[in-house]
Amino acid sequence: MSTHQLQDRIQTTLTAAAADPAARASLRKGQLDRELAARGFDVFEGASVRPVERSSVQPPPAPSQDKSSEDAMRASARAQAEMRAQAEMEERRRQRDAERERRQAQLDEARAALAEAEAKVAAAQEQAASAHQRLTELLAEVSLARAAVRDRLAEVQRATEAMKRLERAFRAAEKQARS
Fold first, then answer.
1. What number of CA atoms fall less than 13 Å from residue 37's CA on the CB side?
2. CA-based nearest residue to 89, from 3, 30, 147
3. pTM for the complete prediction?
4. Please, what is the angle between helix 67-178 and helix 21-29, to 10°?
5. At what angle do helices 67-178 and 3-19 cross, to 10 degrees?
6. What is the distance between the alpha carbons of residues 99 and 91, in angstroms, rounded to a whole number?
7. Pair 23, 36: CB distance under 8 Å
């Protein structure tokens, strides 16, 4: 229900209470406990109407508000103000609740995004650890391969030197054989 609709209902109740003597007394005491409907022509039900002669018609006296109607109007105005204030408080509470729900939804979304990001970080860390382990293994293999290459190079160098010695010895033997 909108604030305007609530204000209309309050105004209708206060107007009806001001027109009804029993409800007016309850309103004055602050004990009006139900909504009242505006009264129509049924207010005049049972009233007898007699014709008035033109010559005896007096202009109505100037309106004088007696104390009870002034009190009823003040009470009505106070009640209207209180009901408006209550309606405004209810609207503010509703807006706060809606804002709280919106913020909670944002917080839930942020928490879900954080959990997703943490899962991605954990997976990336696991992949990095696996890659680091594989890199360590490959570096160890490279180190072993380098050592093997050095050993083979040393063997080749020794074999080359041995071959050179043999060639010299062979030439020297050929030379001696010819002489």
1. 5
2. 3
3. 0.40
4. 60
5. 170
6. 12
7. yes
Output the 3-class SS for 10-65.
Answer: HHHHHHHHHHCHHHHHHHHHCCCCCCCCCCCHHHHCCCCCCCCCCCCCCCCCCCCC
Query: What does residue 59 show for φ and ψ, rounded to 5 degrees?
Result: -65, 145
Residue 39: how many other CB atoms lie within 10 Å? 12
* One pLDDT digit (tens) per residue for the chain, 179 residues: 678 787 778 778 777 777 777 777 877 787 778 787 766 655 555 555 565 555 555 555 555 556 677 888 888 888 898 999 999 999 999 999 999 999 999 999 999 999 999 999 999 999 999 999 999 999 999 999 999 999 999 999 999 999 999 999 999 999 898 87
Both tokens of residue 177? 């054989």
